[in-house]
Design brief:
There is one protein chain. This protein is mainly alpha-helical. Helix content is about 55%, strand content about 10%. The protein contains five helices and four strands. The protein has a two-stranded antiparallel ribbon with strand order 1-2. Strands 3-4 form a two-stranded antiparallel ribbon. Helix 2 runs parallel beside helix 5 and helix 3 runs antiparallel to helix 5. The model has no long low-confidence stretch (mean pLDDT about 85).
Length: about 150
């Protein structure tokens, strides 16, 4: 006699939303002091923000058709800029850094560009996720969110 077992359905959306939530928690924490060195990730927080946002983007990229080209370009340009324009540079200036003349200089111009581009990158990703129902649930239409409330 055959048993009637309930059919089990796997819903990826809940797990994906949990991964995205974990990623955004890291991003939000790193934005507290984006130029600080992060001991956990062994890199500066602004670079961690970039890598984590890129992980978020790869989670949702398959659903994005029209936004891919724009986000990919921002990602590539920002990655290239961060590699060629570090915000901390070695500086030799005895009057500023003591008798041995060594120190580190903060590149305000590079930071301003990186900061602005990181915000644009983050907002493009979050806007794209929201427009495809993968953002935060809203009271107006909770059904479009990736998970049930």
């Amino acid at each position: 006699m055959a048993e009637n077992k309930p059919e089990v359905k796997f819903n990826q959306a809940g797990y994906q939303q949990e991964r995205i939530n974990d990623l955004m928690n890291v991003v939000n924490y790193c934005w507290i002091n984006p130029t600080k060195f992060n001991e956990r990730f062994l890199d500066y927080n602004y670079r961690v923000i970039f890598r984590v946002l890129t992980s978020y983007y790869t989670e949702i990229r398959v659903k994005l058709k029209t936004e891919r080209e724009d986000i990919d370009k921002i990602m590539d340009d920002l990655c290239d800029y961060m590699e060629t324009h570090p915000i901390l540079k070695s500086k030799t200036n005895a009057s500023m850094y003591g008798p041995d003349g060594r120190g580190v200089k903060f590149d305000q111009k590079a930071w301003k560009i990186i900061h602005k581009c990181l915000l644009i990158y983050q907002n493009k990703i979050l806007d794209a996720a929201e427009s495809h129902g993968m953002g935060n649930p809203t009271k107006k239409n909770p059904i479009q969110a990736a998970t049930d409330m």
